[in-house]
Amino acid sequence: MFDRLIRWLARLRTWLLVRLGLWRGQWRRGQVVVPAARLFPGLLAGDRWSYGLYCPRGLRDDAPAPLVVLLHGCRQRALGFAQASGFTRAADAQRFRLLCPEQRRRANLWRCWNWFAPAAQRGQGELEVVRAMLADVGRQVAVAPGAVTAVGLSAGGGLAALLAFHAADRIDAVVAVAAPPLLGATNLQDPRDVLKRGLAVAPTLALASGRAVAPLMVVQGLADTVVHPRCAEQLVEQAVRVNERSRPALQAATASPANGLAQTDYRDADGLLRVRALRIERLGHAWSGAPGGHPFVEAEGVALTRLVLQFLRDVRRLAA
Fold first, then answer.
1. What is the pTM of this model?
2. Rg over CA atoms, the chain
3. Where on the phi/psi map is residue 16: left (φ > 0), alpha (ψ -120 to 50), or beta?
4. Comparing 310 with 4, which gets the higher pLDDT?
């Protein structure tokens, strides 16, 4: 009961800070219109999606800066996750803008992004919502060329992973945390089984024929009881196989940068990092090492936000 009260007070604090404008940076609210029929044929899910755009104070609208798209998970809210994960603090320090799409309850009762929908698996569905938000933000502020990245947790990680495969022309790097693999156009498995058991899938690898996947980091906690660690292995394998269609075989190197972490990097013939697999021994289904105060975000454990920013620097999407 006490823990529940603490979480509720933390969410109230986030809401008040946003409403009263007491953040160091500035939040802007926006909406995009995407016809529901294109996302959920036959369903009346509405056609307006909201987002928050976080801009560090002093960063002029006409000053080009990197843009990070942060995709929340189920039962999370966009702005609360941004603060709880430490990304607003990182945006202030690193001088990048933060685009935080908000899932609609009418589109998914638990506010999960519908990564498993056939349209999304084909590169459409709610990926269209992200594309529309990117276009809307691009009309308001200057975005640094080659510096648009996407980061997602759980269902948000699933949508982020799809962006790496289907939207490499718009998204320059992706981090997927506790994310499912691609399901494939003919896969009939229940998505819940894919998550719980890590079942083998039939990926639609033809989707990226002739082009590479955006640089991708797949992060998986080995103590995750919601998304099976095998899912991360499958997602990494899918990314490596698609990359190798357009370039020579990637070279893998494994290291253990810290206790409880295992990292495998896949680089192309030019030495450029294409895929990073990061396995964290004691991480469950959560974002760890952050301010916290939001569902599925923990203060204890490995500082995930720091690892994400390091990857974005390693693939040259953020300044070193």
1. 0.87
2. 18
3. alpha
4. 310
